[in-house]
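As a warm-up, study this chain.
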Amino acid sequence: MPSKTITAARANARARRKSLRLHGTIARDLGVLIVSGRYKPGDILNGEVDASDRLQVSRTAYREAVRILAAKGLVESRPKVGTRVSPQERWHMLDPDVLSWIFEFEPDDRLLSSLFELRKLVEPEAAALAAARRTSEDLDAMAQALDGMARHTLAVEAGRLADQQFHAAMLRATGNAFVVSLTSGVGAAISWTTIFKQRHNPLMRDPLPDHARVYDAVRASDPKAAHAAMLNLIELAQQDMTNARKPAKVKVAK
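Now compare it with the structure written out below.
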């Protein structure tokens, strides 16, 4: 029979896990309302007491949720003022959670264009660096990721994870710690745009050959070709996104 101490410890652990899930859920719900524009920059969120009563959660859970949002730059809490929604320029846009909240609904064209613009600024240059500095271990990691994409396809989670691993391996191959630090944000951007492109219809084009061309250029230690291949990959991905957002043609019965 477990002792009372062990039983109590297990109960406390379950309570902590439940609390973690709860304040994470509250943060997500509030985050979606903020990034979707339901709450505007400058808006004051409900006070801790009112919000916890309305949501029927503890004040501690709500307070922790607000701390999560503050850490991501979405809100700012001040004494005697309350919790105010921050201007968009303060948001940590590449935070994986923030990106997931943005893609919860239909992101506007300007935001999507800006996301792909960032990728065009970063990833082609990273590919060129990778071509100049890659090691055999880097090439192995990229090749394994390509194999995973081929076996699973981007229609399933395993294939999308392999896609992220390919880009992560390429960023690591740059040997630049600051570039590598972008891995989480770039991976999240790739993952959520890929999921979004398949929200209504399957992918119309196989992006695997685009990734293979990047790999071939990096393996050949050809920075110019790697830059061009990665830029082309991103431009085609952006076109896929544009096509995915176009309304499907309705067939008229004759």
